[in-house]
Design a protein that fits this description.
about 240 residues, alpha/beta, elongated, lyase
Length: about 240
């Protein structure tokens, strides 16, 4: 029997955990596989091995483990595969197939483009990673979004890479080139990041530049279709 295991990053924030669970519930409603479970890489329960155990307990003989991550960085390349290998040793008769993060998707970029209104600049805000391939993918997304919207895009990061979100906010608040900046978080869940983003933008309220914060990527229906497509390709 088939199962889909959705792997989320995890958050210390209870609100972030609730967001992840609600997101998976939404995704699972369009996936017609008899067994579906959620698990987390870190900071939350159940962990990945427990998620596999729950699938097997429910009768799964083959599992598609989908990492619900926007880009393929260290978590997707190393941490999650390591946990799945531990699960495979525990259940050698169960076939576990590792899926893929969303990656650079024109459908996501088009959804972002359609959402942005009345802006003369865009801040594309990534969580951040030291992984050079993930950084390159993020830069490509910024480039494609700029081409699609014909609006200047300023990519930045909340951690682990530069330029930083706060530095770009400060820079744009002092320039005379832009008056209406769309702040687009290229992250799935806000969690504790939401407070930081809000505080940073509020500190610029006296500026002549207007910053408008948009919702995280998880709010777009295009992700449902991409997960459904991945399951169909597996099946």
């Amino acid at each position: 029997m088939k199962a889909v295991l959705y792997i989320c990053h995890g958050s210390r924030s209870k609100e972030g955990q609730k967001e992840a669970i609600a997101f998976v519930e939404r995704l699972s409603s369009s996936v017609f596989i008899p067994i579906q479970h959620i698990c987390f890489l870190e900071l939350c329960e159940p962990d990945i091995v427990t998620g596999v155990e729950r699938c097997v307990r429910d009768g799964a003989t083959t599992i598609l483990a989908i990492p619900l991550l926007l880009l393929a960085a260290n978590h997707a390349k190393h941490d999650i595969p390591y946990e799945l290998e531990k699960a495979k040793k525990m259940f050698p008769s169960v076939t576990i197939t590792y899926g893929k993060p969303f990656g650079v998707q024109h459908d996501i970029i088009s959804a972002l483009s359609a959402m942005i209104q009345h802006a003369d600049a865009i801040m594309l805000v990534g969580r951040g990673s030291s992984d050079t391939e993930a950084q390159a993918d993020f830069q490509q997304i910024a480039y494609l979004l700029q081409n699609e919207t014909n609006i200047p895009v300023y990519p930045c990061y909340l951690a682990a890479a530069s330029p930083s979100f706060s530095d770009v906010v400060t820079s744009l608040s002092k320039t005379a080139n832009h008056k209406r900046v769309a702040v687009v978080p290229y992250i799935l869940f806000f969690g504790q990041l939401l407070d930081y983003i809000h505080k940073t933008l509020q500190a610029q309220q006296a500026s002549d530049v207007s910053f408008t914060l948009y919702p995280p990527v998880r709010t777009y229906d295009v992700l449902d279709h991409l997960v459904e497509q991945q399951v169909k390709e597996w099946g």
